[in-house]
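Collaboration report, partner site 2.

Our partner group contributed sequences for two proteins of shared interest, and the home lab folded both. The records are reproduced in the order in which they were received, starting with the first partner submission.
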Amino acid sequence: NSVADKFIIEGRAALKKHYFFQALAYADSADKYSIEKSNVYFFKGRIYSELGQFNEAEKSYKKVLNVSPNYRGVWNNLGNNSFRQQQFKQAIDYYHKEIINNIAPIPLRAMGRAFVELGETDSAKIYFQNAIKMDPGYAAAYFNLAQLEEDEGNLINALQHSKKAFDLDNNNLEYQYVFSSLLVQMGQSNEAI
């Protein structure tokens, strides 16, 4: 429905600017005109997630699953909400469901991050590497892998992965800092940025 789609587009623009209540108003308007409700429920879930209202977000995401069980991103977003609440095992369960339904680099990386939080670094490394295999331009996955390698004392690997992350996104100050700091740790401070 084009009217509902326009409200969703306006709502996304509002959400991007962190105008949460305006975004919710657009979502409610889209709901009135929408025939296919899964996009509206998913969008409401995103808004509630951004507001930190995880119970409301979960309700919206569960509505998406009732209407469209394989909706791309819904299990991933449920995982992100669990991650933000430090429920890492639950997050892994949700990410796993997303990977089964819609394999993509984003939930693979997210799964790796959750495994890091649980101290399961071998599993984390595998998921970061799989995200990179699926998307060789995924700077965030290289960065997470670099951090993991650094934490484990593998500075050469950490430097390689941080360089790759920085090469892919050289406007990211965090990537620049980690790359430069690794150069300094390895005695190459003259090459640090």
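Second partner submission, folded after the first:
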Amino acid sequence: VYGSDIAAPTLNEMPAITNVVELTLSGSKTVGTALFLTHDSVFVDKEIVAENSLSEWSHNVTLIEGTNSFEVYSKKTGVDTKSGSAKGSVVLDTIPPAKPVIDSPTSSTGDAVVEVKGTKSEDGNLCLRRDQEALCQAVVAIDAPSEFSYQLLLNDGENNVCFSSADLIGNLSEEVCFVIYKIAGPDVTIIK
């Protein structure tokens, strides 16, 4: 048996980009072979599966920020040469967009709607979270210009609003929060 007689292992498809640091690699290999993995500069030719009677394999890796390239090959005890290899890569992006910059909004008004202006990150949307809501709602799209103007509908009384920015894979910036009081006046009836 020569290394070239051993079929190259397979490496199942992985996401192109992720913000999850742990990734499970998997695939198939020739029965009776060990499996070795190279992960960029993290480690080279590390045995991740000992020789066994299984044809399927999986192995958890911790990704590093940026592009992570992998190469797997099989080898059999007593054989000096290795099989062909399978390669794959994934980009780890855990860096959130910059938080939005909000021009000084008014702190109190009698208006039902106020205009909120500012600048958002080019790689993120503008996301609004009100009061005790757990999640924010996108109010300006990622592909919209960085300079924005948003018409914010106010409730009577205290309005706690927070703006943030989320990128395509869900990394969320810090929030910019402020309070606007909508002052409700008395109802006026005009009699002619």
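Feedback sent to the partner group on the second submission included the following. The radius of gyration is 28 Å. DSSP finds no helices and 15 strands in the chain.
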